[in-house]
Amino acid sequence: MFLENKKFGISGTALKLIAVVTMVIDHAATSVLSPMIIYMPAWGPINSANSVGWFYFYRFLRGVGRMAFPLYCFLLVEGFSHTKSRGRYALRLFAFALISEIPFDLALHGTFLYMGDNNVFFTLLIGLLAISLCEWIRGLLGNPGVLREFLWYVLTACVFVGAAALAQFVLVCDYGAAGIAAIFVLYLLRGQRLFGFAVAVVVLGLSSSTLEFWALVMLVPIFFYDGSRGRQNKYLGYAIYPAHLLVLGIIRAALGLGA
Known about the structure:
Number of strands: 0
Largest sheet: none
Shape: globular
Helix content: over 70%
Strand content: under 5%
Mean pLDDT: 91
Structural class: mainly alpha
Distance between the termini: 49 Å
Low-confidence stretches: 1-5
């Protein structure tokens, strides 16, 4: 039980807004500020004398930005649990994964097409398809029992390994296998939201960077999450991702920050 008996709660829309703001901060730091620091001799505000300060400011912004992805994973699992059609949900993710790829490459790599990695919509799509497959397997196994539950966990582990390999080595998605692991943790512990989110963040932190631990701050808004969707435009929420990346890519190109 979360906040059913409390007077104050926040909706999924509020969580999504937090995720959007922190994501934009993260991408601005990565796509614009980072290359500015690298090419600091060409920039008046950034030079060898104050480069350390700018670097710590960059790290601060990246820390704030680390709060976005775990929130998106959390909202993905919430959407998975409540959507009327997981198939349409997956198609939306796939469509925006394709739409977002060029803006992603422009903003993060300064080029129209970069084969080294792919945007986070692919990670979320693989995660959604994987946990949907796990739910289908559960239904196929029928009524719960010790043996069937054990078999389900074994098969779920196999699905996870396959999805993680696909994200890490085939599509080379943003966050890769660590992102899939975070989604699976949140899926398996969706009845314990706070604990599940904390474990997912720890998994991300241990598998990539200690900056990921900044996302533990998001336990506060998740504590106040009341389970409601709130007023939202689903397509606007998706469109913000490629739109802000395109703007950042244009700024990066206009400033001549290179690939």
